[in-house]
Amino acid sequence: MSAEDDFGLWERELTSESSDEGGGGRGMVITAAGVAAGCAALITLGQESLGIIGLVLASLILLLWRLGL
Length: 69
What we know:
Largest sheet: none
Order of helices and strands: HHH
Helix content: over 70%
Distance between the termini: 32 Å
Number of helices: 3
């Protein structure tokens, strides 16, 4: 394998990763909105502690998801 072959392989890997990531942002926003609405409903129904815990956990999960961990 020459350096040109290595560069072509690396370039294909980068383009395939960027194309896979296209719908991930939209799904993340929909998930975050659904979780926030559910936790707001819990807080409204009198389960403040459960709603706050849900919001904190959802925020951590979405942060880790966004970071790719």
